[in-house]
Write the structure tokens for this entry.
Amino acid sequence: MVVTPIHITAAQKEQYHEEGYMLLENVIPPPHLQMLRDEGQRYMDEINAEMDSKGVDVLGLSHRHKRYFIHSKFKGNNRLASFLFSPLMAEICRATIGEEAYLFLEQYVIKMAEVGMKFSWHQDAGYIDSKPTPSYVSCWCTLDDVTEENGTVYILPYSRAGTREWVEHKLDSESNDRVGYFGDDPGDPIIAQAGSIAVFSSVTFHRSGPNSTTNMRRVLLAQYSPKPIYNPDGTPRRWVEPFLKEGRNVYPAIE
């Protein structure tokens, strides 16, 4: 399966750099969309089996039959890697973080039907314990149509958040969420069809509501940094997987 590049307009690029986000509608081809759904279901089944083996209903941010956060699966999975390192994702990186890019994180975010939990206001960079340098880009790839009813993401533009800088977050002990914005602005909901990508900066505040529908709401989150991000002790924070060098895709060819 091949994901072809797309044209990102000057207006979309300006919105990303000025307000912290842009929406690319219907850009994931149907074959890749179904593949991403299939892989997400397989990993969700594995999480449930792990919960069974440990006799628990919560693993990190994953809550059984409510929400699932499943990450770091692309190694050894050429189907997933073929999307993460595709011309489509390369074009998004060039438009946002520039000519050099590293895969930082890939993560499924799945909200189950009717009981899916909300996710509090945060910056993605707020889940890093110290101020990250530089900021990176988050690609929120919709595997289902997303609406306010099924728990879509709400974006708080830079101009209304009052900052485009990293903010220290507080831990919510009940949900394990980290929270960084406590104002009353509800944000702007992303309403889009499956196969769209909401692109936002790691310092853009966003949240999501509960899923009140009878169907799952599935998203693949892919994050890319313009430089490697390390922990204070010098170890990689997450992935440091080279993707673009001087604008060229340097990830090994996938057969």
Remarks:
- The chain has a mean pLDDT of 91.
- Residues 33 and 195 are 6 Å apart (CA to CA).
